[in-house]
Write a structure and sequence with these properties.
Keywords: Cell membrane, Membrane, Transmembrane, Transmembrane helix. This protein is of the alpha+beta class. Helices cover 53% and strands 11% of the residues. It is built from 20 helices and 16 strands.
Amino acid sequence: MNSLQIALRVLRVDRRTRTSAVLTAIGVAVATGLVLLLATLPFATQHREQRALWQGEHFFSRGSDGPVKMVYASSKDYFDGRQIIRVDVALTPGAAGIPLPAGVPQLPGPGETVVSPALGRLLQAHPGGQLADRFGKPVGAIGEDGLRFPEQLVALTGHTPDAMPENASQVAAFPGGKASPDPLLTLLSWVGIIVLLVPSLVLVASSARLTAARRERRLAAIRLAGATPGQVTNMVAAETTLSAGIGAVLGLLISPALRGLASFVPWAGGTWLASDFALPIGLTVFIVLAIPVLVVLAGVLGLRRVLKNPLFATGGHTKKPLHWWRLLALPAAGLFFLVAVTTAKDSDSGGIGLVMAGLCLLVGSAAIVGPWVTSAVGGTFVRIWRRPSALLAGRRLRDDPKGAYRASAGIVLAVFTGSMALTLLPTFESMAGGGRSFSGSVFYVDADAPHASKIVDQANAALQKYGQSEKAVAVGEVYLVRGQVPNRYGHRALVMTCADAVKLTRFGLTQANCTGGPAVFGDSALDLAQYKFATNWEGEAVAAKSGTRVEAVHYPDSDLSGTFVIDPAALPDGVAMKDFTVVAPTTDANREIVRTALAGPAAGAEVGSRDQYLVNQQTELGDLRRVTVIGLIAAGILAGCSAAVATAGSVMDRRRTFGALMAAGTPVRVLARALRMEAALPALVATIGAGIVGVLVGVGLYSLVDARGIVLSPWLLAPVVLGVGVALLGASVCTPALKRVQAEPLADE
């Protein structure tokens, strides 16, 4: 009889082994499904960006690779808080044969537009003055092959060459090439693999331990009967391979369902196509094979005691105490992570890989340090407490710290992940804000001098046609400079009347500031005898008009610091400004109408506002919150399941001991209290440590993004509290398990 036949026979006759095998298969299936899903996220972002390359959101022209056939511009527009990608094109005279991107049915002519289905529905549902007049007559619909996500709003609008914005590119064809994955989601997917795979494998290990004592006795008996170490190893490998292999196949089968659910999770403003989650076959095969191999390898390595000394494999041996040097694993891993983070900030490539390796080492160090901490907690119980339940719990933690820590391993990693996330998120949220100098509801369009006057005239005409009283104005830009080129320094300044500054900016000016003649307003009082006006940083500088006053104003927002407002009357005659911003105020009732009035003459130049800038920030933060919540829920569920299974396994491992204690008259409630103490108190100590390490890792990861200080929130305590709660919830299975032991004859063992 070969090893596989023996494994199948054991599964048929032993109900506990079947239960362990089923739970092991489920754990492997969960691990395989999660890794397959997380591994596909970078490829999914690359697929969606590949479809959207022609939209030119990340396109910067470096000159044409062929004869110029088209004038091309890409910008962002908005409607009711939703982003619209606007692509404006114009064929050059005599150009023909422009290859169309996938999903684009035709090239629109002047005054025509091709829109995505979602944008087409919006055009039909709203008056032309609010939206449709920005683009032109719809003549076609963009297919899914040309959209980043199904609900994306995109407009491909045709013009004549002279109507294109000044920053338009001269190109031979639409932007193309090979897209890159989203770096943020790629980083999050790697972090997810690290912090979710380990709890999944802990669940597998806990499931395998359900019958550990019985299997050790069975294997020791077979070994004493004459089986060679190789035969025993083959039997365990066959038994583990059977359950792990079925679990891996099951994980592969459920992965399409997981990807289907993931396609409904928004990222960067939209959901996904089902085809986005396509993983290369080679990587799929590697993952499906690698996880069962790890499980089988762990099972085989656990046979050392049976193979070496089968006669005492089931408890007739003296367990060695754990050495203090285990504590060195955590600082060593932390030092590696610190070096990796420091190196990554100065490295152009490969730095993130080292950071992820350091994160793996930190996660792995928990398995080395955790048992020592558990043993130390058990020793404290034995020395201090004298209640029966505390003594039983302390002796268990002292005698088998590795087995006792197994119930807390998943919880420790979940707390580590939660603390790391709750360190990063409040800090990212504190970074929100900023934007241009104009008030939140003011729209602005950047333009040069000739285009600015045209946009102002046409926008005001459109506003009058729509029955609006608002007016667009052109705000010039100059520099207050000191010194000579190339050692010149100074400040940016907006050229606008004081009345317009009160109405249109967020500098905090009031009508009281507008008395007393031409002035320069800023957050500090400059000496105009030392500063002059220049239309560009290296241009000729001229002095202000005589009688110009300088007034310091307290700015309400720190990001405005260093920007000044200059009354046009303070500029000397002959100053020809080159850069302008056309601005127009809005109200809640006419916001989209004013945007339409500006978008038409802007012809593809982006119409922005501070309100929309802040909304975009909140969209990005919302993506991070959503991914974090999903990850923490998954980690918490896995941790709770592994704690429950580990607690049940602990009871099954000690059926003889508990049966004897019950036969001697020990109440079940005392034993249940001891088991709960075994689970909760080591979890409390370990989770506090995991929370501290998670905060430090979060600080290290944040330093890769920004050198400013971290923001610590009281919510950092939540993972520790929830971790202990999950440990107690998992330990709640001990009472039913003990009652089952009480109901079964002790002679069965």
